[in-house]
Amino acid sequence: MSTFIIFAPLEKYYKLKELSKEEQKLILDSILEIYPPEAYSPEITSAEFRILQESNDKGEIEVTHVAKVIKVFLSYSAIDKRLVSKIKRWLEDYGLEVFLAHEDITPSAEWQKTILQNLESCNVFIPIFTKNFKDSDWTDQEIGIALAKKKFIIPLSIDIIPYGFLNKLQSLKLGSKSIYLSCEEIIKILKDNSKFERPLLNSVIKTFLNSENFEEAKNKSRILLKFDDAFTAEQVNEIIRGSTQNNQIYGSFGAQHALRELIQKHNKGVDKNLTRKLYEKFDHRF
Q1: How far is CA 47 from CA 28, 29, 170, in A?
Q2: Within a 13 Å sphere around the CA of 137, how many CA atoms are in the beta-carbon half?
Q3: Does 21 score more than 80 pLDDT?
Q4: Range of weakest confidence among 20-29, 89-98, 127-136, 190-199
Q5: Which of 29, 150, 226, 252 has the most CB atoms around its CB within 10 Å?
Q6: Which long-range CB contacts under 8 A does 274-282 form with residues at least 24 apart?
Q7: 123-135 confidence digits (pLDDT tens)
């Protein structure tokens, strides 16, 4: 038995990693059609995605492994969906993978099973304590499961304070009109936690390198600068390398400015050849 490895450019790699299990199975089935099992040959039983980078000076292909992103489960009353949807969007700007029941479950899915699966796989559990929270049929059960699974919990208090087993936890007091600042506090908590710092940084890098237009690249490059003191030289070089492969980044004047500032701050650790290639892209955008 063997694994079929698929090398993909950085921006394509992230999209491949987000494929569902069914979509990944379709890819594996297609591979088996091209390479059917033969006598005395290894049988392909799985497919793995890796990042394809440019060749180095020796002509070898360099491959980078990227840490998994942080998965967040938002527990809330359906009455507060509009508010919680805004929290989700802000957190996703930092590259976090946020699950919001009712919004992320397709009509045909077995929703209870889906919720349990996401509770099982999440790294961070965030209950949104509004006046409607206690009236939900499911929020208390979700809290119980999160506690049993020993999930990292960040309670958000809007109208009421955490109760039951969560009343001893320090909660963030949120105002519904200052969601952005509240989400900044969540990010700070994750950044200051040694368990989540590196995955958070990789999430920020991932979402920036996947920018789909100039404005998005500019806005997400500003988020990068918030973490410039925490990036390793390896991560900065990954940012530079990925930026050379996305014309929506190197063609964005706002992103160019942020990248120049980032490179200047990490001048001693950056790969000068990568930097030169990026600056050439700035000068010949189209």
Answers
A1: 6, 10, 43
A2: 1
A3: no
A4: 20-29
A5: 252
A6: 274/237, 274/240, 274/241, 274/244, 275/240, 277/244, 278/240, 278/243, 278/244, 278/250, 281/243, 281/244, 281/247, 281/250, 282/250, 282/256
A7: 999 998 888 888 8
